[in-house]
Amino acid sequence: MNFGVLVFDQVEELAFVGPWTMLTRWSKLENGPKNCLIVGQSVGPMTCANGLSINPHVSFADCPWLDYLLVPGGQGTRQEVRNSVLIDFVANQAKTCTAVLAVCTGAFVLHTAGLLSGRKATTHCCSLDRLRALGDITVIEDRYVQDGNVWTSAGVSAGIDLMLAFIASVAGEGAAGKAQFGSEYYPSLVKYGGFESHAKAPAYLNGLDPKRYK
Q1: Is 125 one of the catalytic residues?
Q2: How far is CA 46 from the centre of its chain?
Q3: For position 139, which CATH number holds?
Q4: pLDDT for 25-42, tens place per residue?
Q5: Phi/psi at 2 (nearest 5 deg)?
Q6: Residue 159 contacts residue 16 (beta carbons within 8 Å)
Q7: Would the CA dihedral through 33, 177, 211, 208 be positive or negative?
Q8: SS3 track for 55-98
Q9: Which among 63, 97, 104, 125 is annotated as catalytic?
Q10: What is the pLDDT confidence band of residue 214, given thresholds at 50, 70 and 90?
């Protein structure tokens, strides 16, 4: 089983490192993926949104066919939706993937690759209106959304929740629980600074029905 995590210049660090941590913990279990790969257009250094420098394991040209692909978000997605090489890579891999996942504004990459039209999806709270404006997506303000074999999550840290839910759906709650426990990922319910009342705060933050459609 091959699981690829796409990266690009100005990718948001936590949007891929969070899911990567859960993914690689799962990979150590009997029913986990054999190969976990960080995939970039090239294998040269890339600078993330907050300054971290990374080196992909494989380039698009050398990447094997993937069973699963995760596309993170970040400022870089605003450029990458116009990168035909990256979009073609995502679209071609998706043809044989069992599932495709997106974190944060990675949803816009999936849409450009033709994978979100007519589906339910979500993205970073500050980009929900941009996602609605595309016109062919039912936007749900929830932590993560599954529609068939396409999964999307809210912003940045929500990728961890997405990955745990995905692991549970594929490998069972025991596998997801081991990844969660090993990472001690049990988020506090404390909310700082009152930002849950921000005009762009997603519905789920205030206990509202997350299925607020466009």
Answers
A1: no
A2: 18
A3: 3.40.50.880
A4: 999 998 899 999 999 999
A5: -110, 125
A6: yes
A7: negative
A8: CCCEECCCCCCCCEEEECCCCCHHHHCCCHHHHHHHHHHHCCCC
A9: 104
A10: very low
Distance CA 26, CA 60 (A): 24
Identify the band that residue 209 occupies on the pLDDT scale cut at 50, 70 and 90. low
**Residues of the domain holding 79:** 2-206
Chain mean pLDDT for the chain: 95
Phi and psi based region of residue 54 (left: phi greater than 0; alpha: psi -120 to 50; beta: remaining): beta
User: What's the full length of the chain, in residues?
Assistant: 214
Determine, yes or no, domain membership for 213. no
Give the count of beta carbons closer than 10 Å to the beta carbon of residue 18.
25
pLDDT in tens, 94-109: 999 999 999 999 999 9
